[in-house]
Design goal:
Elements (H helix, E strand, L loop, with lengths): L1 H23 L16 E4 L2 E4 L4 E7 L2 E6 L5 H11 L6 E2 L4 E4 L5 H38 L5 H34 L2
Length: about 180
């Protein structure tokens, strides 16, 4: 019974961390990655799909991404989607492919990106704390229904707090690593 609560708690908290890591991939660091385009969606034959399902997306060097659509009629659609996504660069369409040239990040841009990362980490912490509350509420219901004693409830809530502390520490460690990655020139 309590093990189910602990398992629920761990799964939900890990989900918060996974979501944060996924969001971190969209942040720009010193070296450009194609992950920066993960949130860009294009209209491909009536459905909105990720850009990498409509084109080949390659980081050709540390500052350039090349997008080669499989259907050349998609060039303007992809170009508009990139401009709408506001990722910090203007697409260069040469008629066969789109190139994104990312200038070197300034110190101010790096600090702004770190602020975004901290916001994402704080959102993950809020998610973890909400999961802790849900787990504690489940434990209190078990106690109220006389399925566990008051002492067992206290021990269970302490264990949920330890699980929460473990995931908050993971979030802090992941953020620290990402900050270092962003601020490294």
């Amino acid at each position: 019974m309590l093990n189910e609560v602990y398992q629920f708690c761990e799964e939900k908290m890990q989900g918060s961390i996974d979501h944060m890591i996924s969001n971190f991939r969209t942040l720009r660091t010193g070296k450009v990655t194609t992950k920066i385009l993960d949130n860009v969606r294009v209209d491909s034959y009536g459905s909105m799909v990720p850009i990498d399902q409509a084109a080949s997306v390659l980081a050709t060097d540390a500052t350039t991404i090349t997008i080669s659509p499989w259907d050349k009629s998609m060039l303007s659609v992809i170009e508009k989607a990139i401009m709408k996504a506001d990722i910090g660069v203007n697409p260069n369409n040469n008629g066969t492919e789109i190139k994104l040239f990312f200038p070197a990040m300034t110190v101010d841009q790096r600090h702004d990106t770190v602020k975004k990362a901290k916001g994402m980490a704080e959102d993950a912490k809020v998610g973890v704390r909400n999961d802790r509350k849900k787990a504690n509420d489940k434990i209190k219901v078990l106690e109220k229904d006389k399925l566990i004693t008051q002492d067992e409830s206290k021990v269970a809530q302490d264990k949920v707090q330890k699980i929460t502390d473990k995931y908050i520490a993971k979030i802090d460690e992941t953020l620290k690593n990402k900050e270092q990655d962003i601020l490294t020139v």
